[in-house]
Amino acid sequence: MALEETLIANNSSLKNEMDYLEQVLLNTHRIDPNLYEEYDVKRGLRDSNGKGVLTGLTEVSDVCGFDVINGRKIPAEGSLYYQGINVNDLVHGLGSKKFGFEETIFLLLFGRLPKEEELKRFLGIMFELEALSGRFVRDVVMKASNSNIMNAMQRCILTLYTYDDNPEDISVENVLRQSLELIAKMPLIAVYSYHAYRHFRKDETLLIRNPEKGRSLAENLLLMLRPNGQYTELEAKVLDIALVLHAEHGGGNNSTFTTHVVTSSGTDTYSSTAASIGSLKGPRHGGANLKAQKMFDDIKASVKDWDNEDEIRLYLRKILNKEAFDHSGLIYGMGHAVYTLSDPREKLLKSFAEKLAKEKGLENEFALYDRVERLAKEEIMTHRKMFKPVCANVDFYSGFVYTMLGIPEELFTPLFAIARIAGWSAHRLEELLNAGKIIRPAYKYVGHHTEFYARDERE
Ligand SMILES: CC(=O)SCCNC(=O)CCNC(=O)[C@H](O)C(C)(C)COP(=O)(O)OP(=O)(O)OC[C@H]1O[C@@H](n2cnc3c(N)ncnc32)[C@H](O)[C@@H]1OP(=O)(O)O
Ligand SMILES: O=C([O-])CC(=O)C(=O)O
Predict the structure, then answer these.
(1) Is residue 34 part of a domain?
(2) Is 164 in the active site?
(3) Binding site membership of 337 for ligand 2 (Cβ less than 6 Å)
(4) Could you tell me if residue 449 is inside a domain?
(5) What is the pLDDT of residues 219-237, one digit of tens each?
(6) What is the pTM of this model?
(7) Which domain holds residue 383?
(8) Residue 366 burial by CB count (10 A; 0-12/13-18/19+): exposed, middle or buried?
(9) Which of 384, 386, 391 to mutate to test the pocket of ligand 1 (most atoms within 8 A of CB)?
(10) What are the UniProt keywords, alphabetically (predicted)?
């Protein structure tokens, strides 16, 4: 259902013109790779050992992949702290209680866990802010339905600017109000966009169900998503914890750094959030959860004997050699910029994946994931130039968990965004409160200055 504007493929003369421009383009923009070393460019904002360049300070969270012993950095089991609290303790401390994600939002934004009475008041505020007017759903969400729900969310969020009486004000008071509204509305925007896609693109029955007061954000997600609105306590709990685990990850991850960069220019909350969603969608960041799912579909179809480690290893090698799956050379769900021996979120998700797999009779699939995780580590370490040990990341098991919860893959990365907007909001407020300078690193010019030639003198 492409628009006429995008139908270059059907217009042969325009296609020829575009091929010509592509050739012109390919003859430029090529920078000698040696120059990066010569000028000591911190590619990817990393030093020569792969460590991130220090570009900011934060109190929101701490991502730890190393221990420092006698001044030396030693790879360690990963740990993650939200406002000083270890996420393992947070997840275990929340236990079977509902509203874990809501407590986490409060913690990230306000620096401490809410007291009983505060949580009640906070839930009341969030419920009030959650509503999307019927007019917005009809005029925005249902229009130009999109197969990629991340892009649909960006469009809806940018349009919310129009519905805000005070969109430009970047005072802390106003940005807090906007942030809470966006956090509360994101689940509705994502799920309704998904239903619009199902209806308008796949000719399935349109389903729009309102969220209900007293239910957690995770419960309302399942209520709005499922045709019968039913879910089990375990399903809601697992989703709640998945949201807690995806809510925040320091200032340096690509989408949160995007929040800092864009916020530092003084722009509005809707622009900043849409930019961060665009970053998170990328397959090397949050979009890896969808890629990992598709990669496993491919592994399941290509590897005949899931117990045969040699066959799996051979397939993984093909991925690394760009001969299999999406030819990017990446094994999705593996590797991390900071973690070395483990990603604590992956460990927790893996334990839920194992429980759910047992419950649903999918032990074989779980065993395949476990095997791929172990073999992929070995293969990446052997075939890539690594500065540190490699481990599975948060995106490795999340798609498997979501599939067992009956969540469609179109919503995998949107679920990440629904959670991570809590962290983006905390970082946006931190950037504004600390009145940072505009973020503006340097780029060295390595081209050649040249004279201007008049049109009829150009060769
Ligand atoms: C929520 C998140 O964002 S978690 C990350 C989700 N992303 C993925 O799962 C995608 C696959 N993983 C990757 O692409 C990477 O591991 C990243 C982007 C997560 C981290 O990248 P980096 O910090 O550059 O990793 P690192 O410095 O350890 O990598 C060293 C080398 O190993 C390669 N490598 C790292 N992970 C992988 C992988 N999963 N598959 C293949 N090669 C890999 C890198 O490409 C790099 O090679 P290069 O120097 O030739 O480019
Ligand atoms: O920290 C990173 O680079 C990526 C990541 O795991 C996240 O954002 O959750």
Answers:
(1) no
(2) no
(3) yes
(4) no
(5) 999 999 999 999 999 999 9
(6) 0.96
(7) 288-404
(8) buried
(9) 384
(10) Acyltransferase, Transferase
CA dihedral sign, ordered 366, 367, 370, 375 = negative
**pLDDT, tens digit (0-9, with 9 covering 90-100), for 242-268:** 999 999 999 999 999 999 999 999 999
- 427 catalytic, yes or no? no
Q: Are 259 and 424 in contact (CB under 8 A)?
A: yes
The set of residues, in sequence order, having a beta carbon less than 8 Å from that of 441 and lying 6+ positions away, is 45
The CA distance from 399 to 226, in Å, is: 18
75, β-bridge pairs: 66
Ligand 1 surroundings by CB, under 6 angstroms: 50, 284-286, 288, 320, 329-337, 380, 384-387, 393-395
Same domain? 277 vs 336: no
Q: What angle do CA 135, 138, 140 make, to 5 degrees?
A: 95
Per annotation, catalytic residue among 260, 285, 336, 427:
336
- For a mutational test of ligand 1's pocket, the pick from 243, 291, 330, i.e. the residue with the most ligand atoms closer than 8 A to its C-beta, is 330
CA distances to 87, 98, 177, 236, 325 from 421, rounded to whole Å, are 17, 20, 14, 20, 31
Element (H, E) at 242: helix 233-246
Owner of token pair 């990603």: 343
Nearest C-alpha to atom 9 of ligand 2 is from which residue?
Answer: 249
Mean pLDDT, the chain, whole residue set: 95
**Residue located via tokens 């349009």:** 159
Place of tokens 């999109």: 146
Does ligand 2 come within 6 angstroms of the Cβ of 394?
yes
Is the pLDDT at 3 greater than 70, yes or no? no
* Ligand with minimal distance to 254 CA: 2
Domain count, the chain: 3
